[in-house]
């Protein structure tokens, strides 16, 4: 199942689309509705949706700016553009960043559904190639860390994708002449073809891969949030920090699991925590006499000073310039 998010500053459009489409039929989870680009940016950082259906012109951060900013991150999010008449130049600019689907407003259910289906195919093909490459690398080295499988297997709920994953595994085991009993391969195929649940298929896949690789390293569950805090502090100037990047490349865990656990342990979303750290550091640097542009760069907003000013005002109630003036009056 893929996750999709809708971003449009017109409430009637957001809610109409969310109620019009049969998401279950498309095997899509509607993960959120956003009223502006800034809200959408934060939600994408938190939720890592596969698809974002966005208006091209929104207050705060336009759809085009949103696409540009997310394209600089490590997120594999695909965009579908909603655009009014006369805004095609914006859409053409967005296509430079890999956007392939463009819907002209007003639009109908058929147009939206067709665009979502096209992007969904691309998402699953990307996932299939990613999984095939990962399984190949995993089987290449007997000392691979089995916990990295969480990155690929946790949260997978689409039956067709599971079949593709199983095909990749069967192909790789055959190619590498791995020692798997014939009945095990037959059992997996029967599990897939006889309508077993997705969780049962995943269980079989885990079992087969455990037989092929030697899991020696264990991912420690201790100091979970400390690892995230430490990474953010050390890489704060990186404008591309996302929870997905930390989860996959530092913790070797599924991003949905990391997101929920972070919220449970800290009581706040990762995007809120990241924003708070950036503003806390920004206030410190401004008090030390750094220029606003320099501060924006030091806290990871150098590529978007406008976003930095908006974020600063949202968190402190005043612009960076006003904050400097308030310090000078003391």
From TrEMBL:
UniProtKB keywords: Cytoplasm, DNA-binding, Phosphoprotein, Transcription, Transcription regulation, Two-component regulatory system
Gene Ontology molecular functions: DNA-binding transcription factor activity; sequence-specific DNA binding
Q: Which SMART domains match?
A: HTH_ARAC, REC
Answer yes or no on keyword Zinc-finger. no
HTH araC/xylS-type domain boundaries:
226-326
The family database entries (PROSITE patterns) matched by this protein are listed as: HTH_ARAC_FAMILY_2, RESPONSE_REGULATORY
Function, in words: May play the central regulatory role in sporulation. It may be an element of the effector pathway responsible for the activation of sporulation genes in response to nutritional stress. Spo0A may act in concert with spo0H (a sigma factor) to control the expression of some genes that are critical to the sporulation process.
Name of protein: Stage 0 sporulation protein A homolog
Organism expressing this protein natively? Candidatus Acetatifactor stercoripullorum
């Amino acid at each position: 199942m893929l996750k999709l998010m809708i971003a449009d500053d017109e409430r009637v459009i957001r809610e109409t689309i969310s109620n019009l489409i049969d998401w279950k039929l498309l095997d899509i989870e509607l993960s959120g509705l956003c009223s502006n680009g800034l809200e959408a940016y934060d939600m994408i950082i938190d939720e890592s949706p596969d698809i974002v259906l966005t208006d091209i012109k929104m207050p705060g951060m336009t759809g085009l700016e949103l696409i540009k900013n997310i394209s600089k991150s490590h997120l594999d999010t695909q965009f579908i553009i909603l655009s009014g008449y006369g805004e095609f130049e914006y859409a053409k600019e967005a296509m430079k960043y890999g956007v392939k689907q463009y819907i002209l407003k007003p639009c109908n259910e058929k147009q939206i559904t067709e665009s979502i289906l096209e992007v969904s195919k691309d998402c699953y093909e990307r996932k299939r190639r990613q999984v095939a490459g990962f399984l190949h690398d995993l089987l290449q080295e007997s000392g691979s860390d089995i916990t990295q499988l969480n990155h690929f297997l946790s949260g997978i709920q689409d039956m067709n994708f599971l079949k593709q994953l199983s095909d990749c595994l069967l192909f790789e085991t055959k190619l590498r002449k791995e020692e798997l009993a014939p009945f095990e391969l037959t059992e997996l195929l029967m599990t897939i073809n006889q309508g077993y649940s997705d969780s049962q298929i995943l269980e079989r896949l885990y079992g087969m891969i455990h037989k092929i690789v030697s899991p020696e390293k264990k991912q420690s569950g201790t100091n979970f949030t400390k690892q995230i805090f430490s990474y953010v502090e050390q890489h704060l100037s990186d404008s591309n920090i996302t929870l997905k990047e930390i989860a996959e490349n530092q913790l070797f865990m599924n991003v949905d699991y990391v997101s929920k656990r972070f919220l449970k342990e800290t009581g706040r979303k990762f995007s809120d925590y990241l924003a708070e750290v950036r503003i806390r550091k920004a206030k410190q640097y401004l008090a030390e006499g750094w220029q606003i542009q320099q501060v924006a760069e030091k806290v990871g907003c150098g590529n978007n000073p406008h976003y930095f000013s908006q974020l600063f005002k949202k968190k402190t109630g005043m612009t960076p310039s006003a904050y400097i003036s308030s310090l000078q009056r003391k």
